[in-house]
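hi! just following up on the protien thing from before. the input was this:
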Amino acid sequence: MLTTEPVDCAFPDTDLLTRHARVEEDGILTGHKASDVITFCERKEIYRKLRAAVHEQFKPATVYQHILADRIAECIWRAERYASFETNALNLQIQREWDHTTQLVPKASSGVHDWQGWHTMDPFQRKSLLEALKLEDRYWRRHRMLCAELRLVQRTSPIQQVQ
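and the predicted 3d structure came back as:
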């Protein structure tokens, strides 16, 4: 991030970021390298595509808007990760219980297998799964709040990016 005015504190005010900064694609505050959202086993190119789609949707013009757009992409990524936790944990338990459920209920529907998988989890597993669901919900709420803030900033700030 480059500014035309000196910044004398660690956290410059939003107006300074909004009026006098140009966006560096791989800066400290913005860009796909600025995020620690990706774990070592996740595919960075998928996150980059998600981030690009969010930026295409909102078309941020200032550094602050870029930061908000990046946070939106992070929220989506994390919420999807927690949804993946739930799906994988339940799939694993369903696979463990498949034969037992089929013996109890021949030609069992997927709903019966889901219920049996959930029902046979130990309390610690169930609690962990519920916590992952709460985190997913929290990130989706944060995502909606950031989207609303970004739209508000874009409506109230007619200033375009300084070249």
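Residues 2-156 form one domain.
The mean pLDDT is 77.
cheers
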